[in-house]
Design brief:
The chain folds into four domains: 3-141, Endopeptidase. Chain P, domain 1 (Glutathione S-transferase Yfyf (Class Pi), Chain A, domain 2), CATH 1.20.1050.40; 175-239, no CATH class; 245-340 and 533-600, Neurolysin, domain 3 (Orthogonal Bundle), CATH 1.10.1370.10; 347-528, Neurolysin, domain 3. The protein is built from 27 helices and nine strands. It has helices at 21-41, 48-74, 78-97, 102-112, 115-118, 122-137, 144-174, 190-202, 214-223, 227-237, 249-265, 271-276, 284-315, 326-338, 351-366, 452-469, 490-496, 502-505, 520-528, 534-553, 562-570, 589-592, 602-620, 625-636, 644-652, 659-666, 681-684; strands at 177-179, 208-210, 368-373, 384-390, 395-402, 414-419, 422-424, 427-429, 431-436. The longest helix is centred in the middle third of the chain and has 32 residues, at 284-315. The protein is globular, with a radius of gyration of 25 Å. The two termini are 47 Å apart.
Length: 685
């Protein structure tokens, strides 16, 4: 049997080869087409079962394609890439063609108008209403010619997204900085040097090899004293995929043009209004108002931080602060002010210890036990496999972890739902997912030692995983992380809060050699430095959200040069306008190859929710199982079975308090005053 068509929870990844891809998708497409014809031509009255049959049809097709897409992200190769790109147009055409199928749309409407539909409640009622909305938003009521054009747009957009991702990966891998003079390494911590030495040896080179992958790039920009080399690395990173063989500039222009054309074809002025209509924020104007308001609230604090950084750069003898100095000067100022160096924390965060503490927290707080299992059917030796059970013994799900960078793996960190299970007539089908990241790998026979930032990322992605695997929604399309995009980050971002709390850190922050707990002095420095440069970090995130929205609201694709447009939007968020003169846009995979187009604002939107929701844990107990179960029952298990604002109010008993974010990120006191015209999630739901 073709391993991509396996229905087993343990996916036979080790058996999957590129030559399985096209036969598997051809088979799945043929089966889906047959099921579609049977659904459309079925006799008898239409009921909610018609909608459920449609869900089953799409799930059987999306599952093998999702597995292939996953492998492309973690084990890319020319052969796999070619096979994926060969089937992607056919797959996209079939799925986007479903709402455009007149017979299917007629069947869906008849089901919605049936006497049975009028009696539906709960998740069934919501799913029916959402299905009708999704069909209309996908062009079900367009004319024949417009339907054909819409289908062509969707196919081309899927191909362009894949191309953007490929170009970004290839451009990232195309650069290396090989150093052979030890004087050039001044300031770099031992962990970064060890990785650079290992990287060079793996390529058969002598010296220290630095790349644009995060575990190499971030320490170099933070600690390297050689300013000229920092500039070299910075310019390489911020110009990825902006020219040469991996140029994404034309890809960006075409994506933006097609998104606008699609939106207008469907009756929306721009992609932002189209994309945001079903989300909490509701429209592009509301999202932009949220970003603008939060920017203005942040700006005075940011300006003070910029003045401090600029003065400290001069005191260090650097003269005028440059873009490639920011991380370096920020770290030096943090050391000066708090006598704190994040590298000093690494020995206290061995990866396996962090995971053990995270799993203990999960069992205590949410009533979910995590157990590692042997599984030889993985895509790389670094991959581990785990099961999750609730305390009654129900197998809720399984997940894979893939923590370390490789040249055939895309950058960043993510959680990917591979299989959506849930309650069935016969019991419970387990969910399956994975967490992937690009953390500092083991070096010199020692275990992987994480930075505190990497610890937060671990908790963040595990929050997404819990949202998927703890789902108890019977309708797959409404289960797990299938929620409004500006709500999906709440379960992930709230988990990061425990990384700053002493009782939680005591579960896992133990010295790799001595087992010593994190010393109180070091913990106090960590806490004191939490809001250090918080306004700068917040402005950076807001700048990305502003660029994203501007590209999808005001940018005219016919005018050309989206990179220049993005630079102009970024200028008010930059320390000086020239800080925005780079090509970061050509590697902005979140909005051109991910799901964040017109949605990058949602990171900050969800931070408002998570900062406020965590306050209940602070009041009632960080490990209070009753509070944890309330969070599971209101948020983690509910998916999209009810509107997100309803779920939030169910957990908190009220609408969100936007001041919680400012208090946490900027260190503001309880007396912060909210402007009367501030836009908050509760107001735009």
């Amino acid at each position: 049997m073709n391993p991509l068509l396996s229905r087993e929870p343990r996916v036979p990844f080790s058996a999957i080869r590129p030559d399985h891809v096209e036969p598997a998708l051809d088979t799945a497409l043929a089966e889906a087409q047959t099921a579609l014809e049977a659904l459309v031509t079925a006799s008898g009255p239409r009921t909610f079962d018609t909608i459920l049959a449609l869900d089953a049809l799409t799930e059987r097709l999306s599952r093998p394609m999702g597995l292939v897409a996953h492998l492309v992200s973690v084990q890319d190769s020319p052969e796999l890439r070619a096979a994926y790109n060969a089937v992607l147009p056919r797959y996209t055409a079939f799925l986007t063609g479903l709402p455009l199928h007149e017979g299917l749309w007629r069947a869906v409407k008849e089901a919605a108008e049936s006497p049975q539909a009028a009696r539906l409640e709960g998740v069934a009622r919501r799913h029916l209403e959402k299905t009708l909305q999704e069909f209309r938003r996908a062009g079900a009521e367009l004319s024949g010619a417009d339907k054909a054009r819409l289908e062509a747009i969707n196919v081309e957009l899927s191909q362009l997204g894949a191309k953007f991702s490929e170009n970004t990966l290839d451009a990232t891998n195309a650069f290396e900085l090989l150093l052979t003079d030890e004087a050039d390494l001044a300031g770099l911590p031992a962990s970064a040097l060890e990785r650079a030495r290992s990287s060079a040896e793996a390529k058969g080179l002598s010296g220290w090899r630095f790349t644009l992958q995060a575990p190499s790039y971030v320490p170099f920009m933070t600690y390297a004293e050689n300013r000229a080399l920092r500039e070299t690395m910075y310019r390489a990173y911020t110009s990825r995929a902006s020219g040469g063989a991996f140029d994404n500039r034309e890809v960006i222009g075409r994506i933006l043009a097609l998104r606008r054309e699609r939106a207008q074809l469907l009756g929306y002025p721009d992609h932002a209004d189209y994309a945001l209509e079903p989300r909490m924020v509701g429209s592009g104007a509301r999202a932009l108002a949220f970003v603008t308001e939060l920017t203005e609230r942040t700006r005075p604090h940011w300006q003070r931080e910029v003045a401090e950084l600029s003065a400290f750069a001069a005191a260090l003898g650097l003269g005028e602060l440059q873009p490639w100095d920011v991380a370096f000067v920020t770290e030096r100022l943090r050391r000066e002010r708090y006598a704190f160096d994040e590298e000093a924390l690494r020995p206290f965060f061995p990866l396996e210890g962090v995971l053990a503490g995270l799993f203990e927290l999960t069992e205590t707080l949410f009533g979910v036990r995590v157990t590692r299992r042997d599984n030889p059917e993985v895509w790389h030796p670094d991959v581990a496999y785990y099961d999750l059970h609730d305390l009654s013994g129900t197998h809720l799900g399984s997940f894979y972890t893939d923590w370390f960078p490789r040249e055939d793996k895309r950058s960043g960190a993510w959680m990917n739902p591979l299989i959506t299970g849930g309650p069935t007539a016969g019991g419970f089908d387990p969910h399956v997912a994975l967490i992937a990241a690009n953390f500092s790998p083991p070096e010199g026979g020692r275990p992987a030692l994480l930075t505190h930032s990497e610890v937060q990322t671990t908790f963040h992605e595990f929050g997404h995983l819990l949202h998927h695997c703890l789902s108890r929604v019977s309708v797959r399309a409404r289960a797990g992380t299938n929620v409004a995009w500006d709500f999906v980050e709440l379960p992930s971002q709230i988990m990061e809060n425990w990384c700053w709390e002493r009782p939680a850190l005591d579960l896992f922050a133990r010295h790799v050699d001595t087992g010593e707990r994190l010393p109180e002095e070091l913990f106090n420095k960590l806490r004191a430095a939490r809001t250090f440069a918080g306004a700068n970090a917040q402005m950076r995130q807001l700048s990305y959200g502003a660029v994203d929205l501007a590209l999808h609201i005001t940018y005219d694709p016919a005018s050309g040069d989206p990179v220049g447009f993005a630079q102009r939007v970024m200028a008010p968020f930059a320390i000086r306008p020239e800080f925005a003169h780079n090509s970061f846009l050509t590697a902005f995979t979140h909005i051109f190859a991910g799901g964040y187009a017109a949605g990058y604002y949602s990171y900050k939107w969800a931070e408002v929710l998570d900062a406020d929701a965590f306050s209940r844990f602070q009041r009632e107990g960080l490990f209070n199982p009753e509070t944890g179960r309330a969070f599971v029952e209101a948020i983690l298990s509910r998916g999209d079975s009810a509107p997100p604002e309803v779920l939030f109010r169910e957990f908190m008993g009220r609408d969100p308090d936007p001041e919680a974010l400012l208090r946490r990120n900027l260190g503001l006191g309880e007396t912060a005053v909210r402007p009367s015209d501030e836009v908050t999630p509760s107001e735009v739901a």
